[in-house]
Amino acid sequence: MIKYFQLVQKIYIHPLFWGVTGLAIMTGYFWELLALFGIVFLHEMGHAIAAQYFAWKIQRIKILPFGGICEVDEHGNKPMKEELIIIMAGPMQHGAIAILIIVLQYFSIITPEYTQLLFQFNLMILLFNLLPIWPLDGGKLVQLFLASRKPYLDAYKQSVISSFIILLGLHAIVLLFAPFNMQLWLVLVYLYIGLWMEWKQHHFTFMRFLLERHYGKQQDLKLLQPIDANGEDFLYHSMEKFRRDCKHIIHVGGGNTLLGKLDENELMYAYFTEKQVNAKLKEIVYYD
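Structure for Peptidase M50, as requested:
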C-alpha cells in the first residue's frame, strides 16, 4: 500500500496550469476547471496505479494546461498484457467517476446542474482519450495491436503515421465546426508537435528498445520466433525485425544454403558490445 502513496511524489503540475487556474477564477469558470482537471487527474492516476502494480518505472504524472500524461520509463520490453491493462486503467476510471458523481448528487453534495456538467466532462474526456492518435490511449492501443502482429519498429512507425492521418481528419472537423475554439487549437498543436517529435526520434526510440532488450532485465519469453535473413544483411537490418514478447533465432542463409544460426543475444552483443555496427551477418555467424 505504501508504494501507491509514493505516487504523490511523482505528480508534476506544469507552471502554466496555475496561470490557467488564475484566469478561470477571474472569469468565473473555476468550478468548471476543477471538474475538468479533477477527471483528468483521476484518469492519469488510473494509469499510474496500474503501472505501479506491475512495478513499471514511473517518471512523472504530469498535469498540463490542457490535459495530463503518466510518463513511464519503459521501452517496449515489458509484457504486452501488462501494457494493455495499464492503458485501459485510465478509461476504466471513468466508470468509477460516473458512480462517484451519482453518489455526490444523491447526497446533495453537488447540484443537478453541476452533476450534468460532470457527466458531460467525464464522457468527453473518455471519448477524446480513445481517439486512435498517439499519445492518447486510443493511439497506444493501436500501436499495441500492431506490435502483436508486426516487428516493433514497423508497428511504431505505422502507428505514428496513422495517428497523423487521423489527426488531419480531426483538424478538418475543428475547422468546420469549431474554428474559434482556442482550447481545441491548443490540443491540436500539442498533438501535432507530439507526433512530429515521435517521428523525429523513432530511431532513438528503437535503439532504446534494443539496448534495454540487451542490457536490461530479461522477461521470461516463451515464444520463439525465427527470423530468416541473408548473410549479406547488416546486423541492424536484422534487428529491425525484432518483435515484442518474442525471443528470436536468426537463420542466416546464403544462396540456397543455410550458413548457420544466431541467437538474438549474440547479434546484439556483436553490435553493442563489440561495436561491429557495420558488420554483416556472415561475418559473425557460426557456420554449421
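The longest helix spans residues 80-106.
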